[in-house]
Amino acid sequence: MGQLFICDHPLIQHKLTYIRDENTTTKDFRALVDEVATLMVYEITRDIPLEQVDVKTPVTTAKSNVISGRMLGLIPILRAGLGMVDGVLKLIPAAKVGHVGLYRDEETLQPVEYYVKLPKDVLERDLLVIDPMLATGGSANAAIEVLKKRGCSRIKLMCLIAAPEGVKAVQEAHPDVDIYVAALDSHLNEHGYIVPGLGDAGDRLYGTD
Ligand code: URA
Predict the structure, then answer these.
(1) Which of 61, 80, 166, 169 has the maximum number of C-beta atoms within 10 A of its C-beta?
(2) What percentage of the chain reaches a pLDDT higher than 90?
(3) Cα–Cα distance between 72 and 124 in angstroms, integer?
(4) In the prediction, which pLDDT does 107 show?
(5) CA distance 101 to 93
(6) How confident is the model at residue 108 (pLDDT cuts 50, 70, 90)?
(7) Which residue has a Cα nearest atom 7 of ligand 1?
(8) pLDDT at 1
């Protein structure tokens, strides 16, 4: 079973309150989401492996640590996932970014891929799927499926806010995927919005509401 990690650092929780606030402007919303993404990736990368190297300081030669192992690939789900990419890249500028676009088929209600563009070396990377809102889990599961179909493994999911329904759906469909969120909210309402949530993340990021 994939684990659920709640990034409960006080700075993340403080900023999340203003992200939720309906009076927060588009400009501030975007800036806050960007900042929280940076703070979250600091927590998410806590377990990445290090290796020792020699470093020549102005004083002496010393053993010191650098990150080893696989490079990171970011996979934002269009469009709201884009709002967290730059915040992650601030700490991991060498990460490559793939994009997954999905729409919901009105008859089957299933997510359908309309755009997938992944880094060439995606199979050699640890992957972080990014979507601010984990609501039903439909999009996250479909995006993870897109990656697995192409042979990817070592996938994590990063969201701002999750509903218990979405967490359960991802844990059942992809028990190998750990989920990182800033908050686990109460439930989904009849329109599929997370309660209390923050409204439509894409609309609030891009001022389209
Ligand atoms: N997507 C959003 O943007 N908000 C929700 O509350 C649920 C899904």
Answers:
(1) 166
(2) 94
(3) 9
(4) 83
(5) 23
(6) confident
(7) 193
(8) 87
Domain-wise residue ranges, the chain: 4-45+72-206
Residue whose CA is closest, atom 5 of ligand 1?
193
Pairing verdict, β 72-78 and 61-67: unpaired
Question: Cα 166 vs. chain centroid, distance in angstroms?
Answer: 14
CA of 61 to the centre of ligand 1 (A): 52
Interface confidence (ipTM) of the complex: 0.96
How many CB atoms lie under 10 A from the CB of residue 101?
A: 18
Q: Which residue has the tokens 């934002």?
A: 76
Give me the sign of the Cα torsion angle 175, 79, 184, 5: positive
- Over residues 27-82, the pLDDT tens digits come to 999 999 999 999 999 999 999 999 999 999 999 999 999 999 889 999 999 999 99
Cβ of 206 closer than 6 Å to ligand 1, yes or no, is no
133 appears as a binding residue in the annotation: yes
**What angle do the packed helices 10-20 and 26-44 form, to 10 degrees?**
150
Measure Cα distances from 121 to 61, 66, 72, 126, 151 in Å.
Answer: 35, 22, 10, 11, 11
**Under CATH, which architecture does the 4-45+72-206 domain have?**
3-Layer(aba) Sandwich (3.40)
| pTM of the shown model | 0.96
CA distance 180 to 183: 9
